[in-house]
Amino acid sequence: MMLFFSKKGKSMNIQITRTHTLVSLLFLLTASPIRTEVESPLQPWVDFNTVVATINVGVTPTGIAINHHSNTAYVANNNNYGIAGEDSVSVINLKKNLVKKVIFDESFNQPYTITLSHYRGYVTNSNSTTITVFDTKTNCVVDVIDGFDGPSGMAISPDGKTGYVNNYGGPDGVGSGNGTTVSVVDLQSNTIIDTICVGLAPAALALTPDGKFLYVANYVDGNPNTGTVSVIKTKNNRVVDIINGFSGPFAIAITPNGKYALVTNFGSNNFEPFGTTVSIINLKHNVTVSNISLGIQPAGVAITPNGKLAYVSNYNTLYAGSDFTDLTPGQGTVNIIDIHNKKLVPPTIAVGQSPADIAIAPNGRHAYVTNFTSNTVSVIELPH
Question: Is residue 135 predicted with pLDDT exceeding 70?
């Protein structure tokens, strides 16, 4: 899901997974009952798709993950500013939209994404060589897996036995953006059992619902059409195809029916040129069938449980001035894509500054957006 962005040599992690303010809820009641099916490209979701709460979390939140009960979210507080003791994970009670606990551990080193499986949470430490494992029942750290290189994302097989971690590159290895591998992890022993060579700077990855194929978005250098997606057959951990033509691919999500993958084209690490599109890949033929234009710097992407809509966060942060010293966040937004018709639909949803990752609750009722610069999570009510 996420990448590493530099400002005068200092890493600026936006992504890819991861409290005392409750914003008033504006809810429009109508005489007709709430519909459960999307019947038109314009209605009924224009009456929904509103930010109904804003949750204060830690410093520069990135990845977010939601448990299968849809009642708890975990946010990786990346602490891009390097404040002592602020690398952490916020645990959010989604019924109250309040942080109920903050997890601190010495192993955290710019935590970037969080992946949940079988009462375990896996936190990628993007500035190191490790993944921190915590118990979701107790919210206590139970293990640390070593041997990665700037890990920035993780996908777990449907049976929960195998993890796949993209190595973007970090300071203790080949350097940021120079990684070219995916590590295969046995989650019963928490050891790396295989390494797969992919493209340059693997930024995000996703498994098909049946677990047979792994798709890895390779950022490369962020220039137009240089990015790639590696297709891996998990039966033998071999790359079987490469899809070309992406522009700084940043995040990837696969529809529940396994027919399509959506890839955000963020653009350059230097924010010039920046991206404005999301690519839709037909997974039967591994070809891009559509490029949809939306906001500036599409970052995170999440798909509704029914597979009909995708929600995309637009980071919208650029350098101000020719010396590239000042970052200026514009209004962060979220766009909605009708996947079947492959088109952008209204409304555009205003969220916090520099929205990075986005997750949709398994019950399909809300989307949650981490706002990197605002240090908040925006809660969006979805059509249901």
Answer: yes
Structural contact between residues 182 and 205, judged by C-beta atoms closer than 8 angstroms = yes
Which pLDDT tens digit goes with each residue over 264-304? 999 997 788 999 999 999 999 999 999 999 999 999 999 99
Please state, in angstroms and rounded to a whole number, the distance separating the CA atoms of residues 92 and 64: 10
- Parallel, antiparallel or unpaired: strands 238-246 and 130-135: unpaired
- Helix/strand/coil (H/E/C) assignment for every residue in 288-316: EEEEEECCCCEEEEEECCCCCEEEEEECC
The SS3 assignment for 332 reads coil
Q: How many CB atoms lie within 10 A of CB 185?
A: 23
Q: Can you tell me the distance from the alpha carbon of 76 to that of 58, in angstroms, rounded to the nearest whole number? A: 8
47: three-class secondary structure by DSSP: helix
Neighbours of 352 (CB within 10 A): 23
Closest CA to 337 of 366, 308, 315, 314: 308
Q: Which two tokens mark 316?
A: 């919208």
pLDDT tens digits, 100-111: 999 999 999 999
Helix, strand and coil percent figures for the chain, each rounded to 5: 0, 50, 45
What DSSP letter does each residue of 337-352 carry, written as one string? EETTTTEEEEEEEE-S
The token pair that represents 144 in the structure block: 């640390």
The separation between CA 107 and the C-alpha centre of its own chain, rounded to angstroms, equals: 21
| 341 CB neighbour count, 10 Å cutoff | 11
Burial class of residue 45 (count of CB atoms within 10 Å of its CB; 0-12, 13-18, 19+): buried
Please give the domain boundaries of the chain with CATH numbers for all domains: 4-381 (2.130.10.10)
Sheet holding 72-77, edge to edge: 61-66, 72-77, 88-93, 98-104
- By the 8 A CB rule, do 48 and 366 touch? no
